[in-house]
Amino acid sequence: MDNHLSYYTSQSVMSVPGKYAELYDDLPRDISSLTHVIQGLMMHDQTLPLHGLTLTDEREREFNLRTIPERLAKLLAMNSAPLTTARPPAERVTGTCRDFALLFASMVRHQGIPARIRTGFAPYLPGFLINDHYLIGDHYIPEYWDVTQERWVLIDPQIDDITRQANDRIKFDALDMVYDRDFYLGGSVWQKSRNGEMDPLDFGESRNHNGWLALRSCVVQELERLNKVELLGWDVWSHHLLTKPEADLTEADRSLIDRIAKLTIDADRHFDELQSVYEAMPDYQQVREKMQETGLLS
Hints:
Elements: H1 3-9, H2 31-39, E1 42-44, H3 57-60, H4 68-78, E2 93-95, H5 97-110, E3 115-121, E4 129-130, E5 133-134, E6 138-146, E7 151-154, H6 161-166, E8 184-185, H7 186-194, E9 204-206, E10 209-210, H8 212-226, H9 251-265, H10 271-280, H11 282-293
Parallel strand pairs: 1-2
Antiparallel strand pairs: 3-6, 3-8, 4-5, 6-7, 9-10
């Protein structure tokens, strides 16, 4: 197996199931069935109203379950049935897109299938309204290596039947999405915005996190996740490029983001360079120190 495929087959410190690994042994091996299993275990906060549920403070705390063992422990505390048993909506653990992506990656890596999380923007999801304009929000979804087709397949395991029925913009195959049509990779949006082909003000999560800030955050988080540092979306543990005020960015900073964007777009060809660039950044050491503080690294 090529180095990059072997790398993405191994678990990360976030995705490793630990003592719960044996629960994966009976999971289906086809992708469609596996995504249905995940949808029967997890609930995205935006779909709670579709099931007649509301987000309580207790359920909101589940968003901060950073690792797969933490998430599985909470799930089993609510319902100890096998993972192949779909829970009633009220007994599914609440999470975000990152959590759906990480659980999928954890399960297929256990089956020997390479998988990784991609960071970009989803034009099919409801966006934040600002100045009578809906932003295209950032989103995390996984891709897995299809050995028969010898290609990465991009999917959104979060899109279940009820989500599709409630959103008429989801007209594509969520188990084989088209890059830069169904889902915009962060590096592509950065490049096209720099070239004037896209407007950075179309992208973002809120009034305070949109435009160039949202784009560079996405590019840096894409670099992190391609290095299997699969943090929560709000784990801003590096401070060089993620939180630096726009006015303080130097040309060297922008050139670095340009380089990262180019590398992430063609991640396999630049696999070694993606790792060396990340490890040379001040952000890398900051993240490692924080991971040690939180017990993720010894």
